[in-house]
Amino acid sequence: MKSVLKSSWMNLESRSTSLNVKVCQTWTEVTAFYTTPGFCRERMHLFFAEDLDRGEARPEDDEDLEIVRWARNEISAKVAEIQDAKTLVGLLLYLQRGEAGDAHKVG
Fold first, then answer.
1. Is residue 107, in this structure, part of any structural domain at all?
2. Tens digits of per-residue pLDDT, 41-100?
3. Residue 13: which CATH number?
4. Cα→Cα distances 40→18, 46, 51, 88, 89, Å
5. Which of 38, 76, 82, 92 is surrounded by the fewest CB atoms within 10 Å?
6. pLDDT computed for residue 63 by the predictor
7. Angstrom distance (rounded) from CA 100 to CA 94
8. Which pLDDT score, from 0 to 100, does residue 101 have?
9. Does 104 reside within a domain?
């Protein structure tokens, strides 16, 4: 299900604005998963963003975002601190992709 999308896709554009990203040249869809199977049908889509330029964050009123920057070699040690499943999925797949020697740059 790997696909690469340019930043003109509206939902990804608005997401990048919330996250303090001014411009993202390429979004790569990594996977999709259900947040609580058996309870609801909410399906999350995970993307990796590349070629980012910083901008000013503009989260929605009901968004509580914290931007944390870690070097790739720090992530494994920090995973135990994270309580949000979506973040864990994203970080673990990010690390796995790097360990697999994937030619696709993710960080």
1. no
2. 999 999 888 777 777 777 788 888 777 888 889 999 999 999 988 999 999 999 998 776
3. 3.90.79.10
4. 26, 18, 34, 20, 18
5. 38
6. 80
7. 10
8. 58
9. no
- CB-based burial of residue 11 (10 Å sphere; 0-12 exposed, 13-18 middle, 19+ buried)? exposed
Q: What is the DSSP letter of 21?
A: E
Query: Tokens 């896709």 appear where?
Result: 9
72: Cα within 13 Å, side-chain hemisphere: 10
Question: In this structure, what token pair is assigned to residue 6?
Answer: 């340019």
In a domain, 68, yes or no: yes
Q: What is the CA radius of gyration of the chain?
A: 14
Q: For the chain, how many structural domains are there in total?
A: 1
Residue 41 lies in domain: 3-99
